[in-house]
Design goal:
mainly alpha; Alpha-lytic protease prodomain-like; 3 strands; about 60% helix; elongated
Length: about 325
């Protein structure tokens, strides 16, 4: 899928998620009022805050599509991490608020036995689980952290709905504190997922590395490029939906500048064509010192050197 197709798919998923969240917020708030369930009321308040944060998600996805400029030469992809951090912090704050109020409201166990409330919670849980799976699929295909956070968010909804149903049923059975305990559990689950989302966002803002297996695969394909003798260094960092790769490759030291540039251009083109997630590939050539013991190999001790499986050297472009 091309970059334009990917962005369109991601934005459509974000809009659908926002619309579903708004509907859930209204539905759950009404259920909370009608049933008197503290757990349902907690879910309703959580969904209202959730709708606000997902509006930020949709806005960040649109901002991330802004092309590179002089001010932002690598684009605005990292706005996705900023948004995910805001979502994570807001979830933690929402969880703390719900936990602090879960035992302050009067017990309304008489009203929580409504069959309407139980059926409503089941419908809400099913919708959240389906939305979570859909968003997870789109996020995986497009490597989008904002949608990945939204998927986890919907999974929270499904899990907490089960907790709410349990609280309602136990309250109906005579365990007066069950509904309040359910509200407290909802709060703890929300806080934990918020912690996970916030930590993933922080790693992204701190230039989290491209997965090791991906770097290895890029190294293997690069090693097979005509004119490349060895991969001396390879690093990668995340730029939101896309990756940036840095490489040092050794070539025949007798090659001309023009021949070296031809190898670099061919290698860069191969990487960008083979890995759609890579947006930038920075490649530096160093002379091959395997036949000259007087020139040290500065990159042999690099962190990734022992993990890159080299294949037989390809023939040099230079003919003696």
């Amino acid at each position: 899928m091309g970059n334009s197709g990917r962005k369109t798919c991601v934005e459509e998923a974000a809009r659908l998620d926002l619309g579903g969240t708004l509907a859930q917020a209204i539905f759950r708030s009404l259920l909370g009022v009608m049933s008197g369930s503290m757990g349902m009321a907690a879910q309703g308040l959580y969904s209202i805050g959730d709708a606000i944060t997902k509006s930020l998600t949709l806005a960040s996805i649109r901002i991330s599509k802004i092309p590179p400029s002089k001010t932002f030469p690598f684009g605005a992809g990292k706005i996705l991490f900023v948004t995910s951090l805001i979502i994570g912090i807001s979830l933690i704050g929402t969880g703390v608020f719900l936990a602090s109020t879960s035992f302050n409201e009067p017990n309304t166990v008489e009203a929580t036995g409504s069959l309407f409330a139980i059926v409503g919670v089941i419908v809400s849980a099913a919708f959240s689980e389906l939305m979570s799976r859909y968003l997870s699929c789109v996020a995986t295909e497009n490597d989008n952290i904002a949608l990945r956070s939204a998927s986890r968010d919907n999974r929270i909804d499904a899990i907490t709905s089960i907790v709410v149903i349990t609280g309602i049923v136990l309250s109906n059975a005579g365990l007066d504190a069950a509904d309040h305990i359910a509200a407290l559990l909802v709060s703890l689950i929300v806080m934990n997922i918020g912690r996970i989302i916030a930590w993933d966002a922080i790693k992204g803002l701190l230039d989290v590395t491209v997965p090791r297996e991906t770097l290895d695969e890029i190294a293997r394909k690069s090693r097979a490029t005509k004119g490349v003798r060895e991969i001396k260094l390879i690093r990668g960092r995340s730029l939101g939906e896309f990756w940036e790769i840095y490489m040092h490759v050794s070539i025949d030291e007798k090659l001309t500048v023009a021949e070296s540039n031809a190898i670099v251009n061919n290698l860069r083109e191969n990487i960008l064509d083979s890995f759609s997630e890579v947006q930038h590939a920075w490649i530096i050539t160093v002379p091959d010192t395997s036949q000259n013991d007087d020139v040290p190999d500065y990159w042999a001790g690099h962190l990734f050197a022992d993990t890159i499986k080299q294949e037989p050297a390809s023939p040099s472009l230079h003919s003696e």
